[in-house]
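Thread title: Can someone regenerate the structure for this chain?

I was given the following input by a collaborator and told the matching C-alpha cells would be attached. They weren't. Posting the sequence so someone can regenerate them.
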Amino acid sequence: MPRGDLAGLVAAFGAALHDAGLPVGPDRGERFARAVTLLAPTTTAELHRCARATLTCHPEQFEILDRVFDAVFRGYADDPADFRGDPNATGTSTTTRSGGFSSAGPSSESPSSSQAPAREVEIPVATVGSAAERLASRDFATLTPEELAALQDLMRRLAVATPPRRTRRMRARPLGAAVDLRATLRRARRSGGHPVRLMRREPRLRPRRLVALCDISGSMEPYARAMLQLLYCAAGTSHAEVFTFATRLTRLTKVLARTRPAVALARAGQAAPDWSGGTRIGAALKAFNDGYGRRGMARGAIVLIVSDGWETGDPAQVGVEMARLSRLAHRIVWVNPRTQSPRYRPLVGGMAAAWPYCDAVVSAHSLTALDPLLAALEGHSRRT
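Best answer:
Regenerated them for you:
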C-alpha cells in the first residue's frame, strides 16, 4: 500500500468495504479518518481497532471488515487473530515493507518459537491530514478562492452562537417567576373554581441578532471573504445581517440567502461596487447607524466588525459613530488580523478611535484562530 494522503486512503478503504457489502458511507469514513488522526496508530493492531470502532455497528460485520482490512493493509490474508490479540492464535509475525506501509506475514514455526510470546510489530502508518485540515492553520490572506472554498466543510462544524435575550412572549414554566392568571383560572374549573394550583410562566429566550460589517478594501478582501463564508456555513444568513463597506455601505443579507457559498460570494462581489476599494470606516458606520442601527437592527444585537482599522477619512468620526453604536448594541466584537502579531499596538487612527468601544478584539486570521472569535460572540457580559 503506497504512502499517500489520508483522505484518499480512507476513501479507497471505504469503497472496498462498500463493495464487500458493508454499509460504509462518508460519515463513517470521516469518523475513521478523525480517529486515525487523533490516535496516530503505529501498529496494524491499533489501526484495526480504529477501523472496528468507527466503521462497524454490529459484531456480524467484523468478518467483512477483517477480510477487507487484510487485503488493503496486509497485502495478503494471514490469520486475523495474529493482530486482533486472540490468545488462541499461534505463530509470530515478521515485518515486510511495501512502499512505506508495513505488512505482517506468517513465519515458520520452530520448537523454540512456539513457546515464545507473540511479539507486536511496530508498523508506521501514514497520518497525513486531509487537504482542508492542512489549510486550517494557514492565514486567510495566503489562500486562493479554491483553497478557501475547500474549508467549507470544516466551517460547517463550527457553531456561531450568540447569547440569549428575553422576549415579550411568555411560555409556561412550573418554576417561573410570574403567575399566569388566565391559565390558573382555566385550571381552577377542574376543582370547582378553587385555584388549587398556581400556573406560572416566564419570558421566552431567543438568540440575539448577529450583525456583521465586513471591510472589503484591498487589504481586507481575503479576510472579508473568509468571514462571509463563515457566516454562511456556520450561522446561516437567516440568523445574521451582513453588510460590507469600503467607500460605501452595502447590505448583502438577501444576496447571501438560499444559495451555495461560491455563488453567494460571487453575488456579493457584484452587489458591492466598492469591492477592493479604499476604506472609510467612519462614513460606513454613520450610514449603518442612521439607516439601520437606530431603527432597531443594532438594538441589543451582537455587532461583528471585520477591519484592520485603516481609515482614509477622519478618525474622529470613527470614535463618534462607535460611541453611538455601543449605546445600541449588546456587544461589539472587532476582528483585526493584524493583532495576531504580539507587537501590534492600536496606533492607527481608525483602530485607535474604535478600540475603547470594543468588547473584544481578536485576529481570526485562520481557521484555527476562529475559536477566540466564537467565544467572543457568545460572551454575555460587556467589557468594563
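The longest strand covers residues 164-172.
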